[in-house]
Amino acid sequence: MTQIPHPDAAVADEWHVITPLSQLRSMPTDTMLFDRHLTFGHDAQGRPFACDVEHRRLLPVRARHGCLWTCPGTPKGDIPVITEALEPDRRLVDCGVFTIHTSAPRIVENFLDMAHFPFVHTNILGAEPDTEVARYTLELRDDGRELWATDCHFYQPKAALSATGGIDTAYSYRVAGPFVTLLYKTCPTQPDRSDVIALFVQPMTQECARAHPVMFLLDETAPQTDLVEFQQTIFLQDRIILENQRPRRLPLAAGVEIPTMADRMSVAYRRWLRDRGMTYGTTT
Length: 284
Known about the structure:
- By secondary structure, this protein is of the alpha+beta class.
- Strands 8, 9, 10, 11, 12, 13, 14 and 15 form an 8-stranded antiparallel beta sheet that branches.
- The radius of gyration is 19 Å and the shape is globular.
- The chain starts with 8 loop residues before the first helix and ends with a strand.
- Keywords: Dioxygenase, Oxidoreductase.
- It holds the Pfam family VanA_C.
């Protein structure tokens, strides 16, 4: 298979989400990935496909975690494993697709930020005067291929749809790929286990991306539509902030944006991208 030069080798060989499986149709659907026009859908045999239109090239595809993934280069690894997704008592909740006029790294960075909870998600994920981000632990795992923040805690008035009151929520953040990030948080109804919220970001152009949030929840009773609406409310609040950030591309050079102690995960994510040689959707 002829390889087409890619603008960013650091991400060309990664797997990227391009659609929820619920939106696969028999008629081809248009999308973009790294400035390239793609089509996706089901072929005549009912199998999913993705095609690089300009170069008339079929791309590898895999169905995983409720989404269709593709790779514009040559896959050098597998799609990140989410062990909780295999647990039989969890519900997969596809929260839809959000097109956001900012870079993919900006969206990931926002997902990793706890400091904005009381001010953007007021009376849901946070509220004044409980605004302090307590110190947490940062670590690299899987030989540096993943970045984690553990021992995160934040008081939340309504941590999840199933919550009946405010709780001190324990968090772990996992960056499993440049545009693949997950949040493990206290389940209100089963405090010894965690709900999992995944965010798969599709870089369409340098300054426009689509976010695909998928949840793996321990909630047997809430209607699916209510779970989706709860998460969509939070994400639409984030979109307003994200589309007003400047520059739209995430600065990786030290000193361009001044961090605080609460921004340690953001700083670590930027350093992690820089160490991988990332340039797409960033400024250096």
